[in-house]
């Protein structure tokens, strides 16, 4: 049993839930349950993610914590290790679930995943395709957004990555909302008419035909790439494949030191992690370029004008060559 060395208090200090009466009364605190994923936060900000199992003990450098001492306690409670170190018992956030997974590949950062979920217009009940799965970081965010009625179809060609992603999704409690597909995306997607599709691959411009076949007209497409030359190639290909409402974004997140008397940015920050490209597939057989951005239209107009000015007047040159006044030095 963990204890406070100061006054030998119980291992877990729990506040009594507020008394509720009548309709609309205040809701009492949620309690930690067996089988639930919880977060333990130390005084120095270190975070531990664990699933509560009766009879299990959690070992850290701060001391042992028995799961039985946590089960049934209100979330937000201060608990103590066997050595008397305090930890905060919390419900894990979505970034906690995404960042504390086993990794075999680079994962998409929560800041980028949040924007991708927005651009894909995801909500409960939506159907979304993801390629490739990697370690499942973005898959967790997608499943979180479309659950409980929605579905994520996640494609990965490498079985070793898919096995890791499956374990991460199961640990996060989101595997029931995901269908993992081991298949190369150049072979095409098995689903059609989905609401959204995201490509997290090195050369997304090579698969836009497959994207159009799977995504409903007017649906939502997004991709994340790390370099500007990849962005340029994808933009050109999106124009050729009839996509509209194209945008390119980069998300920079700066955290601040939460000190009221000396508020200032943290000394380091996560800078560039990738460019997000979003677009919508449209059906416009007459002229798909009419939906290009105004800046793109102006550029194409200037380019066309320049080509006309620089083009030689073939008829005039031919006439000059046959003119009697034309002399040729020998």
Question: Helical region count?
Answer: 9
Secondary-structure element string: EEEEHEEHHEHEHEEHEHEEEEHH
Number of domains: 2
Secondary structure category: alpha/beta
Helix content percent band? 25-40%
What is the end-to-end distance? 110 Å
The fold-level CATH name of the largest domain is Rossmann fold
Q: For the CA atoms, what is the radius of gyration?
A: 29 Å
What topology, given as strand order, has the largest sheet? 9-8-7-10-11-15-12
**Beta-strand percentage range:** 15-25%
CATH superfamily descriptor of the largest domain: Vaccinia Virus protein VP39
Description:
With 330 residues, the chain is of the alpha/beta class. The protein has two domains: 37-92, Vcp-like ATPase, Chain A, domain 2 (Roll); 96-295, Rossmann fold (3-Layer(aba) Sandwich), CATH 3.40.50.150. It has helices at residues 67-70, 94-99, 110-119, 137-146, 159-172, 208-214, 228-240, 294-310, 314-321, and strands at 37-42, 47-51, 57-60, 63-66, 78-80, 86-90, 127-131, 151-156, 178-182, 194-199, 215-225, 243-249, 256-257, 264-265, 275-281. Helix 3 crosses helix 4. The N and C termini lie far apart (110 Å). Residues 1-23 have low confidence and may be disordered.
């Amino acid at each position: 049993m963990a204890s406070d060395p100061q006054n030998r208090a119980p291992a877990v200090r729990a506040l009594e839930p507020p008394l509720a009466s009548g309709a609309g009364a205040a809701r009492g605190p949620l309690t930690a349950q067996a089988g639930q994923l919880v977060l333990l936060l130390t005084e120095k900000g270190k975070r531990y993610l664990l699933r509560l199992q009766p009879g299990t003990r959690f070992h850290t450098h701060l001391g042992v914590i028995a799961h039985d001492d946590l089960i049934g306690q209100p979330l937000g409670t201060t608990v103590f290790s066997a050595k008397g170190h305090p930890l905060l018992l919390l419900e894990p956030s979505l970034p906690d679930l995404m960042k504390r997974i086993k990794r075999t590949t680079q994962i998409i950062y929560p800041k980028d995943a949040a924007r991708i979920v927005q651009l894909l217009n995801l909500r409960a009940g939506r159907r979304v395709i993801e390629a490739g799965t990697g370690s499942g970081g973005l898959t967790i965010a997608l499943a979180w957004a479309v659950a409980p009625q929605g579905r994520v179809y996640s494609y990965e060609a490498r079985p070793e990555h898919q096995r890791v992603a499956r374990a991460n999704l199961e640990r996060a409690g989101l595997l029931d909302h995901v269908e993992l597909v081991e298949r190369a995306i150049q072979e095409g997607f098995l689903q059609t008419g989905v609401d959204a599709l995201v490509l997290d691959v090195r050369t997304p411009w090579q698969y836009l035909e497959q994207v159009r076949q799977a995504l409903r007209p007017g649906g939502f497409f997004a991709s994340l790439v790390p370099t500007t030359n990849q962005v340029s190639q994808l933009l050109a290909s999106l124009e050729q494949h009839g996509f509209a409402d194209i945008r390119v974004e980069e998300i920079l997140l700066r955290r601040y030191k939460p000190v009221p008397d000396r508020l200032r940015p943290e000394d380091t920050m996560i800078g560039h992690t990738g460019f997000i490209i979003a677009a919508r597939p449209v059906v416009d057989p007459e002229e798909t370029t009419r939906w290009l951005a105004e800046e793109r239209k102006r550029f194409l107009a200037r380019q066309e004008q320049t080509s006309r000015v620089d083009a030689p007047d073939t008829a005039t040159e031919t006439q000059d060559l046959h003119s009697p006044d034309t002399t040729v030095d020998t």
